[in-house]
Amino acid sequence: MTPTAVMELGRGALEVGLLVAAPMFVAALATGLLISILQAATQINEMTLSFVPKLIVMFLTLLLAGPWMITMLTDYIRRLFSAIPGIIG
Known about the structure:
Elements: H1 3-42, H2 47-82, H3 84-88
């Protein structure tokens, strides 16, 4: 196994990981931004105020994007497993 092949495997894993995590990160970022704007406008500085909406939005995002995330992961794993003979030999 050459160093180039190892780098390609690592790059592919990072790409898939970032793609799978992106919907959750974007949802948390958008929710946090909206809650912080609301807190700044109303001058309510309660930490638990941002936790519950983020939790709800993350759950909804997981429900909506979950099938796509699982498909991305299983496709990558299938490609990785099918490439094992070429990587070893």
